[in-house]
């Protein structure tokens, strides 16, 4: 067995026994990744369409068993550069204020994670049947917008807040 084969075998073995590695979710072809909370699983395309009935739903979503707390992620064909982040943040604040009923801002700022600037928006708003706690992160990726949206019912958020924030801290870019 060559050194290369030994290293590959060791890496595969580690992946099989390491829960943190095994649970890491890759954000499509972007190479970005994060660790979802324990017990979160991928939503099927049918579940995504039902949960996000708008015209252009996210391509990838993981969620808890009841699907009342989810993490949606996607790379959108929306041009975005690091220089545009402050202007995009201001524009998003305005658009969301008029589009989301009962919106209450908890935080809205630019943050640095993994050496890259991100738009960080945290808010509560009213959905059709419940109130929602949202944490949205956006950053440029290959000239497009990488979006990760943490979404939970107001009632459930306190129980999952620690694991959701841990998930945010686990975000890695390639």
Summarize the structure.
The protein has 174 residues and is an alpha+beta fold.
In words, what does this structure look like?
Helices cover 32% and strands 34% of the residues. The protein has helices spanning 3-17, 19-23, 45-51, 85-99, 157-169, and strands at 25-26, 33-34, 41-42, 60-63, 69-76, 104-113, 116-126, 131-141, 144-153. It is α+β, with helices and mostly antiparallel strands and 174 residues long. It has a seven-stranded antiparallel β-sheet, with helices on both faces. The longest helix has 15 residues, at 3-17. It has a single domain, classed as Protein Transport Mog1p, Chain A (3-Layer(aba) Sandwich), CATH 3.40.1000.10. The chain is built from five helices and nine strands; from the N terminus they run ααβββαββαββββα. The model is unreliable at 1-22 (pLDDT under 50). 21% of the residues are buried.
What key attributes describe this structure?
9 strands, disordered N terminus, two-stranded antiparallel sheet, Protein Transport Mog1p, Chain A, 34% strand, 174 residues, 7-stranded antiparallel beta sheet, alpha+beta, 32% helix, 5 helices
Domain count, please report it: 1
Give the CATH H-level superfamily. Mog1/PsbP, alpha/beta/alpha sandwich
- For the CA atoms, what is the radius of gyration? 17 Å
Distance between the termini: 30 Å
Strand/helix succession: HHEEEHEEHEEEEH
Helix content: 25-40%
CATH architecture term: 3-Layer(aba) Sandwich
Please describe the topology of this protein:
Elements: H1 3-17, H2 19-23, E1 25-26, E2 33-34, E3 41-42, H3 45-51, E4 60-63, E5 69-76, H4 85-99, E6 104-113, E7 116-126, E8 131-141, E9 144-153, H5 157-169
């Amino acid at each position: 067995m060559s050194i290369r084969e030994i290293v590959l075998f060791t890496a595969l073995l580690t992946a099989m026994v390491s829960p943190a590695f095994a649970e890491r979710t890759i954000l499509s072809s972007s190479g970005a990744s994060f660790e979802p909370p324990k017990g979160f699983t991928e939503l099927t395309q049918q579940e995504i369409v039902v949960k996000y009935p708008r015209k252009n739903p996210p391509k990838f979503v993981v969620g808890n068993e009841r699907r009342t707390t989810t993490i949606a992620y996607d790379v959108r064909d929306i041009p975005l550069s690091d220089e545009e982040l402050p202007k995009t943040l201001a524009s998003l604040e305005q658009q969301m204020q008029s589009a989301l009923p009962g919106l209450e801002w908890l935080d809205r700022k630019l943050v640095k994670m993994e050496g890259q600037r991100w738009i960080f928006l945290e808010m509560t708003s009213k959905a059709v049947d419940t109130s929602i706690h949202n944490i949205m992160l956006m950053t440029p990726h290959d000239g497009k917008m990488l979006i990760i949206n943490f979404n939970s019912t107001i009632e459930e958020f306190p129980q999952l807040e620690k694991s959701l924030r841990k998930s945010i801290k686990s975000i890695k870019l390639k």
